[in-house]
Amino acid sequence: FGGSIGDIVTSLTLKGYSRDQEYQADQVAMTILGRLGYDQKALLRVLEHMEPMVHQGGPGFGSTHPPPADRLKAATKLAVEQPKPAPATRATRFASAMKGI
């Protein structure tokens, strides 16, 4: 069992998910953000922030993920122009969870 878990962890950390799976994850994230009324542009801002730090084919993240600029271009096509405002209950719950962070 330990060997199997080790193989899985090694495979994921060294190979990561496929680039297609990363694009699919971004698409699902945009869908979830939109359905819950969160600002989908938050994901776009994360990708913009990542862009100067992740180098295609470089060590770590850059070796397994598509370039952030490509992900940003794809995710931008999915963004809804006017996200729904967060309900007061969710905003209060979020503010409470963020205390002390």
Question: Describe it for me?
Answer:
It is a single chain. The chain has 101 residues and is mainly α. It has helices at 2-15, 19-36, 41-50, 61-64, 68-76, 88-98.
* Strand composition percent: under 5%
Structural class: mainly alpha
Helix content range of the residues, please? 55-70%
Shape: globular
What's the main sheet like?
none
Whole-number radius of gyration? 17 Å
Number of helices: 6
Beta strand count: 0
- The arrangement of helices and strands along the chain is HHHHHH
Overall pLDDT level: 81
Question: Termini distance?
Answer: 37 Å
Contiguous runs where pLDDT drops below 50 for at least 5 residues: none
What's the layout of helices and strands?
Elements lengths: L1 H14 L3 H18 L4 H10 L10 H4 L3 H9 L11 H11 L3
